[in-house]
Amino acid sequence: MSAPQDKKKRDFDGFDLGKRNNAKSKNKDSAQKTARITIITLVAVAVLFFASLFINSDYFRQNFTAVTIDNTKYSVTDVDYYIENIYMQYYSTMSSAGDVGTSMLPDKSTSLKSQIYDRTTGETWSEFFREMALEQMKSDNKIYVEAQKAGFKLSDTDKTNMEADISSMKSNSTTNGYTTFNAYLKAAYGKSMNEAAFRKNVERSYIITSYTTYMHDSFKYTPADIESYYTQNKDSLDIFTYRYFMVNAADVKQTDYPDDTAYQAAKDAALAASGDKAAAYAAAITDEQSFITAARDYDAETYKDDSSTQKVYKGELLGSTYGTWMKDASRKFGDVSTFKSTTGYYVVFYGTRDDNHYLTANVQQILVKPETVDQTKYASDSDTTQYDAAVELAKETASVLANKIYKEWQDGGATQDKLKELTTTYTAQISTADSVYNENVYKGQLPTEVNTWLYDASRKAGDHAVIYSEANGYYIVDYVGTGKQYSDVLSDTKKRDTDLQAWKDALKGGEPKKTWLMTLAQ
After folding, report:
1. Element (H or E) spanning 481, and its range?
2. What is the DSSP letter of 110?
3. What pTM does this model have?
């Protein structure tokens, strides 16, 4: 082909073959580059995907360290265990405070990570509970480390109790509709919790508790140590019996006054007036009966019963308002004084001070409680006749059962072993929590009717009876004999608690060292 013809051919094709080959090469390079980028992206996505799966896997959350405390490593699952326990304790405490406490709780149905605890700092409820959990872990870890150093092992009893607790939880999980125990644990303690991880944490908790108990019981005291402790702390340990009533200040409404100064002046005047009135009552009191009369004169409804003004408190429970006056060693029966509070004035009559130097009682008992009658079932009973009859029937049924057990016990020799056997025999029909052997029962520990019988001057070892308590039901009581002096019991308990706390305070321990895995905790 001639050159002109070749030219025409190239023009006809629209481009030079050489250029076309170069374009093909460039397109090929671009496609390869795009393919490489795509592959790299896919690989990166795959890596992230599988990394995400791994990070959120049970294995990762159970075996990688979220926090270290003094060389003890805790996983995300371990932290979740603590968080849930702290959460349940907190929830229980706040719920017991009524509507006010409940209103300050997070929403159970929403993630704690999405709920703000402190609007000022932005702290979430999740972060709040994590920090509380870390504080508890730090405290527990110090004891756990000490237990490990001492080679402390759980006793057979502890192991049995631990297994019983876990078995009980398994039963409850089925009752609550969970198909497996692991399903319940994941719902309660976080998505990586299973029975093996749960057992590990429960066992650690048992070791901490058991070792603490071991240390508490390990302190040795002489009788002189015990008596000396009581003498030094008698203002807190003695029992004070006294009477009081409150003369309230008149109600002052802020809306009735032009400014805060006038409002405060009116409140002060009302409080002073209540003080004058209280002083007038106090001046007229010459004995206990005149005090009762004065209280009734002030408020006939509130103080209609002679016992309504009487209080019995351990010294440590007396408030600062009149506590110092009550604890004065020169105080004597019949002393009367008034004390200012924020809402009025107390009128106080000093009664007695008991130093608890008396012998306690050792008692074995079975309690049969009458079945509770649902009053709502008798809503149409206008004069409560049917309801009252049902209550009496429940009491009679309980009485019959109590006397049946009592006779069976007597026929069986009226021994402690026989009463213990009957406690097991009638487990389903008695109050098992109250049917026990009680050592060192102090005055007022049991209901008034039982207390009066126990502390009768004629009481002797081997005495027994069926005693009805209006508050609880029918007690089958076996008086085994005298226990320890109550002041010694109080001293020993308080001194051990004090010494145990000192031991805890002396334990060395570092701060928790967190890793980024803490963000995965509940």
Report:
1. strand 473-485
2. S
3. 0.77
Contact criterion met (CB below 8 Å) for 141 and 509:
yes
Percent of the chain with pLDDT over 90: 77
Are 106 and 211 a contacting pair, CB within 8 Å?
A: no
Report the DSSP beta bridge partners of residue 123: 118
The alpha carbon of 200 is separated from its chain's Cα centroid by a whole number of angstroms, namely: 23
CA distance 178 to 194: 13
> Which residue blocks in 379-431 are alpha helix, DSSP H?
385-411, 416-425
- Among 471, 470, 405, 483, smallest CA distance to 441 is for 483
> Is residue 28 over pLDDT 70?
no
| Tokens read off for 29 | 């390079």
Tokens of 511: 């701060």
Mapped onto helix, strand or coil, the DSSP state of residue 479 is strand
CB 196 within 8 A of CB 181: no
Q: Is the dihedral of CA 193, 194, 196, 202 positive or negative?
A: positive
CA triple 233-234-237, angle to 5 deg: 95
| Amino acid, single-letter form, for residue 278 | A
pLDDT of amino acid 385: 87
Amino acid identity, position 171: S
Q: Which residues pair with 240 in a beta bridge?
A: 313, 353
Beta bridge mates, 441:
361
Neighbour count for residue 261 (Cβ, 10 Å): 9
What are the pLDDT digits (tens) for 227-276? 999 999 999 999 999 999 999 999 999 999 999 999 999 999 999 999 99
Residue identified by tokens 């009116």 is: 266
DSSP 445: S
pLDDT for the residue numbered 379: 78
Q: Which residue has the tokens 């029966």?
A: 333
